[in-house]
Amino acid sequence: MAAQxxxxxxxxxxxxxxxxSPARKFLLAGRGGLNLTHTEPLETFMTRYGTSAPQLHPMIxxxxxxxxxxxxxxxxxxxxxxxxxxxxxxxxxxxxLLRALLRRLDDLGVRLFARHSFAGFDERxxxxxxxxxxxxxxxxxxxxxxxxxxxxWPKLGSDARWCEWFSxxxxxxxxxxxxxxxxxxxxxxxxxxxxxxxxxxxxxFAMGERHVRGEAMIAQTGVEGGAIYALSAPLRDEIAQAGFxxxxxxxxxxxxxxxxxxxxxxxxxxxxxxxxxxxxxxxSPVEAALLRExxxxxxDEAQALAxxxxxxxxxxxxxxxxxxxxxxxxxxxxxxxxxGLMLRQAPGLFVCGEMLDWEAPxxxxxxxxxFATGFVAGQAxxxxxxxxxxxxx
Length: 393
Ligand SMILES: Cc1cc2nc3c(=O)[nH]c(=O)nc-3n(C[C@H](O)[C@H](O)[C@H](O)COP(=O)(O)OP(=O)(O)OC[C@H]3O[C@@H](n4cnc5c(N)ncnc54)[C@H](O)[C@@H]3O)c2cc1C
Description:
Layout lengths: L1 H7 L5 E3 L7 H8 L5 E2 L3 H6 L5 H10 L2 H10 L4 E3 L4 E4 L5 H13 L3 E3 L3 E5 L5 E4 L13 E3 L15 H7 L4 E7 L3 E2 L4 H7 L3 E9 L2 E9 L3 E3 L1 H5 L1 H11 L2 E6 L6 H8 L8 H9 L3 H10 L7 H9 L1 E5 L1 E2 L7 E6 L16 E3 L13 H23 L6
Parallel strand pairs: 1-5, 8-18
Antiparallel strand pairs: 2-4, 3-4, 6-7, 9-17, 10-13, 10-16, 11-12, 11-14, 12-13, 14-15
Helix pairs in contact: 1-15, 4-15, 11-14
The structure holds flavin-adenine dinucleotide.
């Protein structure tokens, strides 16, 4: 996005990416359908960025969710909004959009070099760029926009090594932490041998005062999935503070506890507990087994059983490694950049995307902020270049 804006403004642009091909994480995001953005009103939309909302607000206003949809459509990938408001390309894929963008960049004269990496700054403070043979690229560039990503899924390219080089220049880089990540649970062997991979659908999840309704999945080592990701920031911070975090599940969010107790008060007539729970309370086998994971001897009394179903405690032991998280929290502090995302200490160097210190839940907020900050950084880099007389024409 930054390259597009710079090239449209008339700059001769070269992209370097350390991987054999670009945008691998974007392509992986496409496997889940590529949730590009969200249709909710901007006011609500901005709340998803938590404490970084004030800094990101002007960026998202400069490149709004509607503009992102139009951009995708102009590249031959019209979008649609699902019932939740999440926006996807109709193709549900990232690859056609990426191909179209690369074609557009090529038409704009942008050159792309794969297997070329940024490897720190030289004594003049200029980026060191290495080619595929690890030889220094000697060409001089007048402005630089860094879009090196955060720290999740390093094997796709964003290994966050840049933190060390930026920190060494005195730029404040907050340590990366997993965001939108799974958590470890000490499942019993019996439970996990039967239910690894099982989905939990339409469940209420609560952490303190925060409530989320949605889906999750039983993973070999714990839990993951959309509803867990939505609570992952407070859960992660709680584990950092207390050494563990308690999540409470409502296995039957559509039925009041009193009504559930009434249904569970009927005689069992010799049924096994799990078939009774299925028939009387509509619990799936994995949900019934989760009850037993929490409390080996289930209460006989209907009211107590209903309460457990509505407030099932799940102890989360650890955060899953950042290498498998959807995104990361942390990065370059917003104080380090101006309104155009240029580093205050290093005129001519711009940063965008997950390199910056913000976090957001899934729902299209991640890509929206990456595209918007890329858009702003690209335009600001072009203005900067124009200001110092570097335009090609
Ligand atoms: C499984 C998964 C699913 C996701 N699904 C969605 C979704 O549906 N919706 C959504 O909004 N977000 C989603 N995301 C998040 C989204 O993909 C990221 O937020 C986004 O890709 C970050 O963009 P970025 O440009 O900041 O960094 P990245 O996409 O990580 O790109 C950074 C680039 O910099 C290159 N690079 C890094 N270091 C160097 C170096 N030293 N030299 C040269 N090149 C370097 C890398 O090779 C890479 O190409 C998903 C993420 C994952 C992992």
